[in-house]
């Protein structure tokens, strides 16, 4: 039971953090000045990434422990998505967040900044989609969502 609570809490927190980062980035870019964009980028890089990495590690570790000895389509689908979530995070999202924070702090809002920003937003949507699918599969596995529901 304890692993289930940890897994659900950490997974929910990870999804909320990615949603918060994505939304605050988009809103600051579209409606606010460079100072606000810089602040958002700094907060994400300095504090948000630590929280997200810890939440993802707790989600992955508890999910691995919960899946021991279990088989089935939903477990396999969740396990197949995890390497993509991890690779996107480590290879794209974390470096992009740090790069954008450094560039914003230096006041360098050039074309490369916006290319990296666009990539970060696109990959962020991919992350949210994968996390959402894992979330839904977890609800089905726990019996909180109809196992045969397609929506």
TrEMBL record:
Keyword line:
Membrane, Transmembrane, Transmembrane helix
Membrane-spanning regions, if any?
12-32, 44-66, 82-100, 112-131
What superkingdom does the record give? Bacteria
Name the UniProt record assigns to this protein: Uncharacterized protein
Q: Which organism is it from?
A: Giesbergeria anulus
